[in-house]
Specification:
By secondary structure, the chain is of the alpha+beta class. It has a single domain, classed as Pnp Oxidase, Chain A. 28% of the residues lie in helices and 26% in strands. The protein is built from four helices and seven strands; from the N terminus they run H-E-E-E-E-H-E-E-H-H-E. A seven-stranded antiparallel β-sheet has the order 2-1-5-6-7-4-3, sandwiched between helices. Strand 1 and strand 2 form a beta hairpin.
């Protein structure tokens, strides 16, 4: 499975809709960085926790040995991003696109030493994460997405 089946509901945020559409249309050749930062993103497709609809979000690319960290930072906001709830509700219905072809992944939240190790990688890939954590009282969740066995 390289795509999630079901109704697709675009993001309510115009910049997210535009970026995801351009990324998909170009096979990851365009719209593959966070706005004008030059820092790479991936597109994560999830199943909506409440709606059951397919949702797609650009997320900072934090990759290590073929696995990806999905950092639910929401810019340091006091609450988790909406897609956090989708991952918790449907961790086995997630697809990542990092380049031309989307691929299915299994997702799990990490804690303790494993989270600390991935957090270091995340901050190295996208330094503002450290500032985001300082901004909020919640512990920013980190999920690991591992490609499903073919």
């Amino acid at each position: 499975m390289t795509t999630l089946q079901g109704d697709y509901e675009p993001s309510p945020y115009e910049w997210v809709r535009d970026q995801e559409a351009e990324y998909a249309a170009s096979g990851g050749q365009r719209a593959n960085t966070l706005l004008d930062t030059g820092m790479p993103i991936i597109v994560v497709a999830t199943r909506g926790a409440k709606s059951g609809k397919v949702r797609k979000n650009p997320v900072m690319k934090v990759e290590h040995d073929g696995e990806y960290a999905l950092v639910a930072s929401k810019g340091g906001a006091p609450e988790n991003p909406e897609w956090f709830h989708n991952l918790v509700a449907h961790p086995d219905e997630v697809v990542i696109q990092d380049g031309p072809e989307p691929f299915a992944v299994d997702v799990r939240e990490v804690t303790g030493d494993e989270k600390a190790q991935w957090w270091e990688r995340a901050v190295a890939a996208y330094p503002p994460y450290a500032e985001y954590q300082e901004r909020t009282d919640r512990q920013i969740p980190v999920f690991i997405a591992s490609p499903k066995d073919a």
